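Problem 12. The chain below contains 297 residues. Write out its predicted structure in token notation.
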Amino acid sequence: MIKNITVIGSGTMGNGIAHTFAQYGFKVSLVDINDESLTRALQTISGNLDRQIKKEVIDESVKAATLNNISTHTDLKEGASNADLVIEAATENQDIKLDLFKQLSNICKDGVILASNTSSISITKIASVTKNPANVIGMHFMNPVPVMRLVEVIRGYATSDEITNTIMQLSTHLGKDPVEVNDYPGFVANRILMPMINEAIYTLYEGVAGVAEIDTVMKLGMAHPMGPLQLADFIGLDVCLAILKVLHDGFGNQKYAPCPLLVNMVTAGHLGIKSGNGFYQYTSVNKELIVSSKFKS
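Solution.
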């Protein structure tokens, strides 16, 4: 039975995953490399719980119980040695993930399930550095994790039926809608989404229309809740670029080649919401995100 969860990485996805499991009564060890990151994560979780209270989704007692279920750690062994399930939500970098999973394979107890929240990196590749590839799987949550219902459950080449079924059932227990997919570049969500975002960037790059116009067409014409350029800012332009590189390398098809404008923006440090500027500029007033001023090409 899964009781103890370890989440590695306390950024946007990691703290959202920790929040969700803790809210559903699991004991969560949140691991990151420094105390400052962990303190920010707990502040973010507390703020998100306050929003749920304001919307009358939960009450104060649920907030208190959720926060009480989370412990923080800067030592990987201390945070992961007792885990029944480890979910890695570190930077979307293959070398970092392979190193983490190799360590986890030596640190964790027998029978542990090792999951990655990767949005594009091969689960089969990640599993290959562990002692038990059958117990390695992908759990690709969507942002914001406490709100979005989809979990893309990715089977590596060696992932067992038992582990897959366990993760599917666990995701349902969290109030999510899990969808099982196989391990190919980009899986399903990003194999479809990223070429659309990339094409939207090319449409801007080639001067077909401006940022607001492109996003308006997709929102009003295609019923998308958020335009592709604003969505790219929300995801992180560096993350979009990393995923497109995985798709381009994996399929060798020019249609996945990242737009030069995207490459230049990431090089310049214009990463979207996380840096305060991307295709839009962002400011925060009373903890509410304000989107302003159209991107100037």
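Discussion. The CA atoms of residues 3 and 26 lie 6 Å apart. Students who got a different answer should revisit the alignment rule from Section 12.3.
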